[in-house]
Amino acid sequence: MSKTKSKIVVSESQKRKLVFGAILSYYRGESILDINLVSDNEEYIEGLANWWGITNREEALDVLNDLLALKKSVGFDPLLVNPDTELNEIKNEIAEGLGIHFAEVSKVTTTYAWDIVRLVVVSKYSYWCKYISEEEMWQIISSGTEKAKEIGSDWKQYTISFLLGRCIHGFNLEDVIDECKELYHSKQSVLSWVFRVKNLDVYKRYSFK
C-alpha cells in the first residue's frame, strides 16, 4: 500500500469541521480528524462512481452542491410534521439505540444532518480522487458546517437528525447505530477498543457552534 507523499497538517479549526462527518468516517473505518489518504484511491474512485455517479469534476460539484442545498432533507422534513406509525417506530428505535428518551428524538424536526454528514465525506473523497482541489474541499466543508450551525443546535440534535434522514432514506438503523452511540456518548465499546479506534470523544472536544 502506497502512502501519501506529503502529510497535510490539519488545523484545530479544520478538525472541528471534519467532526461534522465523523459518523460516516468512523463507520467506514477512516480517520475522523485527518484528510490524508494512506492507501491508493481506487476504492474511492469506484465508490463515488457506483454510489454517487461521480466520475469527474463536474459531476462531483453537482452532487456536492445538491448536498449543500439539502435537497434530500427538504424532501424528508415534511414527513416529520405529522409522523405516521412507521416513522414513530423509527424514532423509538433511535431513542433505544442511543439510550435516550423518545421525546428527545421527537423534538428534532429536520433531517438536515443526513445531507451535511455526507457532504463532508463526499467532499473528502472527491479530493482524494482528484476531482476537486484541497482548497475547494475546505470551502465546501466550511459552507456545510456553517449551514449546520444555522439550522442545528448541538451534537445530540445533529446525531438524531442524521439517523432520521438515513432511516427515512431506507437504510437500516442497525448498520450505524453503534458508531453513533459511541460518538454520542464519547465512550468506546469493546469492539472499538479492540481495534484501537481513536477520537471517539470529538463531540466533547469540539464545539458544535
Describe this structure in words.
With 209 residues, the protein is an all-alpha fold. It is 62% helix and 0% strand. Helix 6 (85-98) crosses helix 10 (155-169) and helix 8 (112-128) crosses helix 10 (155-169). The model has no long low-confidence stretch (mean pLDDT 92).
Q: How many strands?
A: 0
The mean pLDDT is: 92
- SS strand fraction: under 5%
Query: How many DSSP H or I helices?
Result: 13
The end-to-end distance, rounded to whole angstroms, is 38 Å
What is the gyration radius calculated from CA atoms?
17 Å
Topology as H/E string? HHHHHHHHHHHHH
- Describe the largest sheet: none
Shape from CA axes? globular
Structural class by secondary-structure content? mainly alpha
State the low-pLDDT regions, or none. Answer: none
Short characterization:
This protein is mostly helical and 209 residues long.
What is the secondary structure topology, with strand pairs?
Blueprint lengths: L11 H7 L3 H6 L14 H11 L4 H12 L2 H6 L8 H14 L3 H5 L5 H17 L5 H18 L3 H15 L7 H9 L4 H5 L7 H4 L4
Output the keywords.
209 residues, mainly alpha, 13 helices, globular
